[in-house]
Amino acid sequence: MISSLLVPMDDSEMAERALEYALENHPEAEITVLHVAGNPSLMGGTAAGLALEDDAGEAAESKAEGVFDRARELAAEHGLEIDTEVGMGHPARAILNRAEGFDAVVIGTHSGSLSDRLFVGNVAKKVANRAPVPVTVVR
Known about the structure:
Radius of gyration: 14 Å
Distance between the termini: 23 Å
Strand order of the largest sheet: 3-2-1-4-5
CATH architecture: 3-Layer(aba) Sandwich
Number of helices: 6
Mean pLDDT: 85
Helix content: 40-55%
Number of strands: 5
Strand content: 15-25%
Order of helices and strands: EHEHHEHEHHE
Number of domains: 1
CATH superfamily: HUPs
Largest sheet: 5 strands, parallel
């Protein structure tokens, strides 16, 4: 029996589908939504703005609130509550590092722009191939 699930989320439709799947198929589980902001960097990407902030952690939390608000709405539609966490770093690595504390991971197939997926690689694929717990990939 699965008692705890990690659901990585960004602001994509696929991430929402993954959370919906988790809520519908594991209503008894404790669900934690993880949003990974990325490492602060001046090299570009979505984390570039974090490098310019005085407190990167606080800025990451602020950027994650929109994702978490939507996740809470979805959970409320199912009469459930979720926990939320913000991660920093490479998305796949941050998810894999956090996955050990859960029974399973539920992740959407892809997110981001085509160039992000080609340059960074498919996060879901990396997580599915390397996770220390079972992974359900939702599309």
